[in-house]
Amino acid sequence: MTDREQPVTLRTRKFIRNPLLGRKQMVVDVLHPSRANVSKDELRSKLAELYKASKDTVSVFGFRTQYGGGKSTGFALIYDSQEVMKKFEPHYRLVRYGQATKVEKASRQQRKQRKNRAKTVRGTAKAKGAAKDKKK
Fold it and tell me: Which pTM value belongs to this model?
């Protein structure tokens, strides 16, 4: 049997219906005695099947495997619709699920260097300051 065919048991506890954020939230205990771990993608599809929801509206995160293995515990959110999910779910998790694109930006060090170069110039030349420093 491959790893995906090994039996996995899902147990939910601390189930709360949160109408203000349009979601159901719960703690998920995953029992996987014959496996090292279970992928979040697989957990999303199993939870969607369990709660009769679309896989695109399920968010799982914060999973920790117990010492010795065989059991993992984490958190799950099942949104009422994709629009509500896009509204309330953090951007990095939407990127994780392929529902948003990652914003590409310069590295942290480059941003700090640009900021410090701009500090040396005054007035309207601030935008040109980065270009002048390169000429020196």
Answer: 0.76
Average pLDDT, the chain: 87
One-letter amino acid for residue 122 of the chain:
R
8 Å CB contact between 60 and 38: no
Task: Give the 3-state secondary structure of residue 54.
Answer: coil
Comparing CA positions, the residue from 59, 63, 86 lying closest to residue 74 is: 63
pLDDT at 132: 58
Tokens of 89: 């779910």
Relative orientation angle of helices 108-119 and 126-135, to the nearest 10 degrees: 100
Question: Mapping DSSP to helix (H, G, I), strand (E, B) and coil, where does residue 61 land?
Answer: strand
The one-letter code for the residue type at 39 is S
Phi, psi of 8 (to 5 degrees): -135, 130
Closest among 91, 111, 110 to 101, alpha carbons compared: 91
| Percent of the chain residues past pLDDT 70, beyond the cut | 88
Helical segments of 4-119, H only: 40-50, 82-88, 91-96, 108-119
How many angstroms separate the CA atoms of 127 and 66, rounded? 53
